[in-house]
Every structure is written in C-alpha cells, then in structure tokens.
Amino acid sequence: MISEALAVLETEEQRNELAEFYEKNKSRFYTIAFGHLHKQEEAEDAVQEAFLEIANKPDTFFSLSDKKRIQYLYAVVKNVSIDMLNKNGKLQSEELSKDIVYRDDENIIENTLLDNISRDEILSFIERLPELQRNALMLVCLSELSTSEASQILKVSENVIYQRLYLARKAIKQFIEERNKNDDGKRIEINS
Fold first, then answer.
1. Measured in whole angstroms, how far is the alpha carbon of residue 44 from the centre of its chain?
2. Angle CA(72)–CA(74)–CA(79) in degrees, nearest 5?
3. Which of 42, 128, 178, 191 could form an SS bridge with 37, CB 3.0 to 4.6 Å?
C-alpha cells in the first residue's frame, strides 16, 4: 500500500525501516483516518498520502524516536484526513467493514451471546453510539491503542477516555441484553 512512498526514499535502510513501521502500525493509522472520513477507500488513501508526505521529508521522521514517530504520524494522518474532508466539502458515511469492527473482545461482549445477534446488528448499533464514545472505542478496543495514546489523539484526558469507554461498553451490554431478552423471552445477564 505504501510502495509509492517507499520509492521516494533514497536508501534501502530507510525503505526497510518505513515499511516495518507501516506494517507494525497500519491499523492504528487506518482507524484514525476512518474515524474522520468514514469511508474505507478514503481512509486507505489518507494513510497512503500520509506516508508519502513523510517519505518526501524523511529527515524529520527518521530523526525521531519510535514513540515520537507514532505521534508525528498520528498528526500527519489526522491532518491529511481533515484536508480530504475539506476538499470533499462534507463528511460522508459508509457502513463499517465487519473485519474492522468485530473482534473477540471479552471486555465488550461475551462470545456466547454472538450466536443470537448478527454482526450487522452489532455494527449498526456501534455506528449509532455517540461519536465521542465510538471514537474512544475504536481507538482502544479495535486499534489496540493504550488509553494514554487515545487521549493524545483525541486531545482529552485519560479519565475522559475511561468514561467514554465505560459508557460505550455499558450501551453495548444493554443492547445485547435487550436483544437477547426480546429473542428468547427471558433476560440473559452479562457479567461485567
């Protein structure tokens, strides 16, 4: 996906280093872009464009530590995504890919209940969560960022991230319980 960016770099060492960095962190950057653009193809384009920008100014990227590189690229991906939104004039939404949203995360839902609820229903519910909760959930649970990293990206305190995750998980739990209650005529409890 970043072959264009790799072709711009002068040394094989830089190409290898950037390719390795991309492979290790691509889902994190994709999630940030998708959080702004809400379209899979545009999010992929934004990540590719961000890596191309980095390859065109390699001195900045390669002078940073790994942690600083991640923060730097978060900023570049976010800015590229915002630029794409501004260019297109408005945010457009698209259904989330099942591969992006669904992961076996026992902190969100118990796998045993998934037999009674389709992935499409869960995706639809997650899409209806308030944006602030949805963004925190995507960054921490789906992109596997730490709450500290998510707080830096969303520019809020770590406590705010914990609150948003709590509310999102609580809403998902209630949705699953209600859905199972309606299907079975009996209430199925989820242990928190």
1. 12
2. 100
3. 42
Report which DSSP code applies to 179.
H
3-state SS string over 127-164? Answer: HHCCHHHHHHHHHHHHCCCCHHHHHHHHCCCHHHHHHH
Q: Which residue has the tokens 């995360």?
A: 105
- What is the rounded CA–CA span in Å between residue 28 and residue 26? 5
Separation of CA 71 from chain center: 15
How far is Cα 192 from Cα 170, in angstroms, rounded to an integer? 9
DSSP per-residue codes, 17-70: HHHHHHHHHHHHHHHHHHHHH--HHHHHHHHHHHHHHHHHSHHHHHTS-HHHHH
Model pLDDT for residues 84-131, shown as the tens digit of each residue: 887 776 444 333 333 333 333 343 334 444 445 666 677 778 888 898
Percent of residues in the chain assigned helix, strand, coil, to nearest 5? 75, 0, 25
Provide the token pair at 189: 């409890």
Residue 142 region by backbone torsions, left for phi larger than 0, else alpha for psi between -120 and 50, else beta: alpha
Q: Is the pTM of this model over 0.70?
A: no
Q: Which two tokens stand for residue 186?
A: 């009996």
Residue found under tokens 């229903």: 121
DSSP 8-state class, residue 97: P
- Whole-angstrom distance, CA of residue 79 vs CA of residue 111: 37
